[in-house]
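Tutorial, part two.
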Amino acid sequence: MMVLLSTIFIGPILVMILTSFKTNVEAQSSDPTFLPHSWTLKAYRQLFMQDDASPVLRWLLNSIVSATASAILVCLFASMAAYAFARIEFKGRKILFGIILSTMFVPSFVFLMPNFEIMSKLHWLDTLAAIIFPGTAGAFGVFFLRQFFISLPKEFEESARVDGAGPFKTFFLIVLPNAKGAILTLFILSFLANWNDFVWPIYVLFSDEMLTLPVGLTRLQGSYTIDYPVIMAGASIAAVPVLLLYIILQRYIIDGVASSGLKG
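Running the prediction step on this input gives:
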């Protein structure tokens, strides 16, 4: 069963990578092949070395900067809000938390026009700020981390207060280090959400230099012809940072999901 599941998930990635080393004729052949008959780096040379090459490296940098910044802000804002809902008693806490959760059921397309108007008023259109900030206050992160904070023993915080630590010092020096697994899990999920976002960048990014990689890759497709090796080469480059991030942090992802149950 594990071999079958691995084949289902890894198979398309292998096909994508191998296609990037094929010639365009072989990639479009009616008799498909798994391994290239003649290995070639033509697609990668076309991406990076031709005079009229698309700014793939700039798109890659834009995606890395926007996804990283967005994930950091999501973890910061969500952790503070989640800790408040998990530990601080205040009037209307459950009602307010329910309202926040209810936003998860609203389709994301509903927010396109309001967010566009906000970005326009802030003069952030065609800048990375337009794809970094709108998604930094989502309800999922608050819900996810709140479940984890509820499961943390209160003795940690009580010991810190006895030693004279204030609420902010307790939160940043005691609570967050103990929530490392859950926060890293949220970081990766938020990174992937921003990295793979396609619709929103199309609305707010206009110039070629400011595009993110998923949007920029669509520019590699011609009006009448499709160079599949070039597109697969660009997609392979887009997959590398995500795969590396997951391989490095997979242990924290498993621990974070396992420890963030549905308590409370």
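The domain at 55-259 is CATH 1.10.3720.10 (MetI-like fold). In part three we will examine how such features are distributed along the chain.
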